[in-house]
Amino acid sequence: MSGKGIGLFWYLGILVTVFFWGMSFLWSDQVLDLGVPVFTFIFIRMVIAATALTLFSLLTGKFQRIRKGDFKWFAAMTAFEPFLYFLGETFGLKITGSPTLCSVIIATIPVFSLVVGWIVFREKLSALNRAGIFLAVAGVIFFIILGGSLHTDYLYGIAILVLAVIGSTGYTAICKKLGNKGYNAFSIVAWQFILAIGFFLIPFLIWGVSAWKPEHLSWKVLRPITELAVLCSGVAFVIYAACVDRIGMTRTVVFLPLVAIVSAVAASLLGQDEIRPLQFVGIALAMAGVAMAQAQTGVIDPKLQKQ
Fold first, then answer.
1. What are the φ/ψ torsions at residue 259 (nearest 5 degrees)?
2. CA 292, CA 286: separation in Å to the nearest integer?
3. Per-residue b/e over 97-129, b at no fewer than 16 CB within 10 Å?
4. Which of 94, 130, 173, 295 is most exposed, with the fewest beta carbons within 10 Å of its own?
5. DSSP assignment, residue 100?
């Protein structure tokens, strides 16, 4: 396969990730609406994700042990995401009760990742690329504002959601570093969720066990948690980690604003929300921003040309 063909493969991959992460806000909202405590919900998700990813990595021969001196990087990555990110996202969703509002806050991640990618990894971006990232985010914000989802009542929830933005930005930077050290995406994500069990164990024992109910293991609860664990935490994170390594940090995160669009459209199709005609202007702006962010010469990572 040519370098451009491989590059297109990874761009299609990040779109799959965007879809699953867009649906994650709706599935998480379903779990919280069922009254499942936050730390119970997150801990079960971590256990399912870690088990599925580790078994798959072992069966396919892709599981790598953490080399001496790299444990601190895996621990730091896990501290950023899923620990900090999931705390910010889940509590932010619980406080605001709005999947679309949560998704638009998460859509600001490319702005922060742009700075990190430029400073830490010296990834080059033209003025057009930078303008595209901001236009994509602006389009999403415009879309949400027209939907009437932003209110001052949500300021506390928005502040909590900023933790998720910080977590995702730190995670992406360290994930890029580990990819450069030779770790494959399956191993990175498998260890990420294995270590996450340890991070969330104490909060679960303190706040989750006391609120435990037998119905938390019912299929009505486990179905959306399994979807989140396997599709959003498993499949999507593996693709995301691989894309960060293959096409670069900034070119990967620029697609994240589309997560909010997926969430809003899915909510509308499921009868949970209604998209107003003018909101399609926001969709158009977001799509144009993504196109602008990708418009540069040599967009394919040089190492793809060798494959």
1. -60, -40
2. 10
3. ebbbbbbbbbbbbbbbbbebbeeeeebebeeeb
4. 295
5. H
Dump pLDDT digits (tens) for 57-68: 999 899 999 998
Within 8 A by CB and 6+ apart from 68, the residues are none
pTM of the model: 0.81
Low-confidence ranges of the chain (pLDDT < 50): 297-307
Q: Which two tokens stand for residue 260?
A: 């909010």
Residue entry with tokens 């601190």: 72
* Single-letter amino acid, residue 30: Q
Question: Dihedral of CA 8/256/243/270: which sign?
Answer: negative
22 Cβ partners below 8 Å, 6+ apart? Answer: 103, 258, 259, 260, 261, 262, 263, 266
Report DSSP letters for 268-288, one per residue: HHTTS----TTHHHHHHHHHH
pLDDT in tens, 116-126: 777 777 777 78
What are the sequence ranges of the domains in the chain? 3-306
DSSP string, 104-160: HHHTTHHHHHHHHHHHHS-----HHHHHHHHHHHHHHHHHHHHTT---GGGHHHHHH
